[in-house]
Amino acid sequence: MSKHARILTLPNIITLIRVATIPVLVVVFYLPFKWSDVLASALFLAAGLTDWLDGYLARKLNQTSPFGAFLDPVADKLIVAVALVMLVQVHATIWMVVPAMVIISREITVSALREWMAELGQRSKVAVSSMGKIKTVAQMVAITMLLGLKPAHMVSGSVEMTALLWLAYACLYVATALTLWSMLRYLRAAAPQFRAAPRRRP
Questions:
Q1: Within-domain flag for 200
Q2: Is residue 60 part of a domain?
Q3: Is residue 73 part of a domain?
Q4: What is the reported pTM?
């Protein structure tokens, strides 16, 4: 089997499609139509579901690969970061800016931490935990709802829309709290390496 064949497995193709969805999501979100927010929300939700699907297929078909292990988390972080940046613009309040800042900062910090721990051969100590998966679900639910609730397109005084907006923010803040908690756990697991004596380079 060629190298290209090993890379272009079905799970990896699905992940690549998720990456390709990002510019489409941005364009759809800014279309000057009332239904653009609902379509953007549906696209983000579909992308989130493919995150589960590609992992399931990789295990089911025994098609796990180093390329897939690299690309899958990158795809997730890219689409979440882009969605949060767009939401900060349309939900331009501190209540949106703070969780967006925390979530994006955490992803950068943990990614750097995992790379550093991998260089030390301690990657398993900062592997994804069950808490991280719960955080991801809450985050996806919150962003999906917020993308579909542009303030400019919401019905003024609608009790249903207001309730949905509050629910979306509740999910976002649950995700933010879990984000901080999981980051602190990762940092605590890596703390012995921070205190270790420096190693000499060959």
A1: no
A2: yes
A3: yes
A4: 0.84
Say whether pLDDT at 25 is over 90.
yes
CATH number at residue 10: 1.20.120.1760
Note down the domain range covering 156: 3-194
Q: How many domains does the chain have?
A: 1
Q: What per-residue confidence (pLDDT) applies to 1?
A: 47
Share of the chain above pLDDT 90, in %: 32
Long-range contacts formed by 52-55: CB under 8 A, 24+ apart: 53/14, 54/11, 54/12, 54/14, 54/15, 54/18, 55/11
Residue carrying structure tokens 């949905």: 164
**How far apart, in whole angstroms, are the C-alpha atoms of residue 139 and residue 198?**
37
Residue whose pair of structure tokens reads 């979530």 in the numeric block: 103
Q: Which of 46, 44, 51, 53 is nearest to 72 (CA)?
A: 51
Which regions of 51-98 does DSSP assign to beta strands (E)?
none
Q: Residue 86 in contact with residue 23, Cβ under 8 Å? A: no
> In which band, very low, low, confident or very high, does the pLDDT at 86 lie, cut at 50, 70 and 90?
very high
